[in-house]
């Protein structure tokens, strides 16, 4: 019998996009189940009773919560194709460090940018861009953060570029002149089918944001 793989998700979630990319990279068939985050399903509450958040990967009935943990799990279970973590222990530790840094720093500033206004929002933008400089250095002249291979740091980071660069939602948020390496990395990543397939539709995102603005206004 084949594996049953279900993803409890919300289409706009950058965390959900990570899990989708990892599943696509491995060529795993899965069922994406959309959650209404204002009215969470009993299944979500049962599968993630601690945080009650998406994404939750359900593999043969067992839940795996937290997007980066799910990405590592996918890599370990389907280890024969497209490795997402390096086999060398030191490089693996480094990859985990940077993936964790994306979560603790970059996502924090991104979230603040999305949820605040005025000065605070401007501060979040600056801190985000400041942090991104470290990633520009870290990337160096490699095609991916995983060197020649697309890996967990790429998976962790690229969903943010869907909003801050690819869909140009916030007027040249990341300038090509200041971040040439990161921008060419983002272009390289989005040319991958696993990535472009996992991004939500640009039209839907723009519609969602314009409705949000109208509600505020
Ligand atoms: N650290 C978590 C973050 C997941 C997360 O924040 N999910 C949001 C959607 S983007 C959510 O489910 N929010 C619902 C809530 O907070 O009630 C991960 O990496 O999976």
UniProtKB/TrEMBL annotation:
Note the Gene3D superfamilies from the entry. Answer: 1.20.1050.10, Glutaredoxin (3.40.30.10)
Q: Where in the cell is it found?
A: Cytoplasm, Cytosol
Record's keyword terms, sorted: Cytoplasm, Transferase
State the InterPro entries in the record: Glutathione-S-Trfase_C-like (IPR010987), Glutathione-S-Trfase_C_sf (IPR036282), Glutathione_S-Trfase (IPR040079), Glutathione_S-Trfase_N (IPR004045), GST_C_Tau (IPR045074), Omega/Tau-like (IPR045073), Thioredoxin-like_sf (IPR036249)
Cross-referenced CDD domains, in alphabetical order? GST_C_Tau, GST_N_Tau
Q: Which GO terms describe its biological process?
A: glutathione metabolic process
One of the entry's Gene Ontology molecular-function terms is: glutathione transferase activity
Q: Does the keyword Transcription feature in the UniProt annotation? A: no
- Enumerate the SUPFAM superfamilies for this protein: GST C-terminal domain-like (SSF47616), Thioredoxin-like (SSF52833)
- Enzyme kind, highest EC tier: transferase
Every copy of the GST C-terminal domain together lies at 88-208
Q: Which domain of life is it from?
A: Eukaryota
Is Secreted among the key words of this record?
no
Gene Ontology CC terms:
cytosol
Enzyme Commission designation: 2.5.1.18
Instruction: Please write the reaction equations for the catalytic activity of this protein.
Output: RX + glutathione = an S-substituted glutathione + a halide anion + H(+)
Entry similarity comment: Belongs to the GST superfamily.
| Function comment | Is involved in the conjugation of reduced glutathione to a wide number of exogenous and endogenous hydrophobic electrophiles.
Name this protein carries in UniProt? Glutathione S-transferase
